[in-house]
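Before any further analysis, we paired sequence with structure tokens, yielding the entry below:
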Amino acid sequence: MPPANVPNVLTVGRILLVPVFIIALLERTETGDDVAAAVFVVASATDFVDGWLARRSEQISSFGKLADPLADKLLVGGAMVALVHLDRLALWVAVVVIGRELVVQLARTFAARQGEVIAAAWLGKWKAAIQMLVILLLILVVPSPGWLDALVYAMVAITLWSGADYFLGMRRAMRSGDATAAT
């Protein structure tokens, strides 16, 4: 059972908001996109608030270090699949982003089984923020103008860059036996 603290409750709440968000986004109503955007903003905000609270109140837990990135992957992955279904995002973009997220999550799980909990680095935090911004814009700005298409390409680039950075940090951490080397 995860430690019951506010950051962990926010993380679990974000996971529970994912299906609500996806249903709202896929619902073919006048307000579906607006509701989906609002739920997405709330869920995205919990990503930043839970980490800040955990650090500030010294309630960082192994559960939070593993569940927080998983919640992000579910939110971003679900959004990408729904946006592809709605023809608002190219399939290859979703495959690259979701593929990177799955590989990093599998690596994070492997490291945890080896006794290493690899926290997200600053580049991973920027990647998450950019992904969430792009997803929000793809929900709200239909059809997608050229500047938003360029932002999608920038998102893909930072996603790949942060993945490479994660694996380099993980390699250093696993070699030295110090999980802080990847942060």
In short: Residues 146-176 form the longest helix (31 residues). The mean pLDDT is 87. The chain has one domain: 6-182.
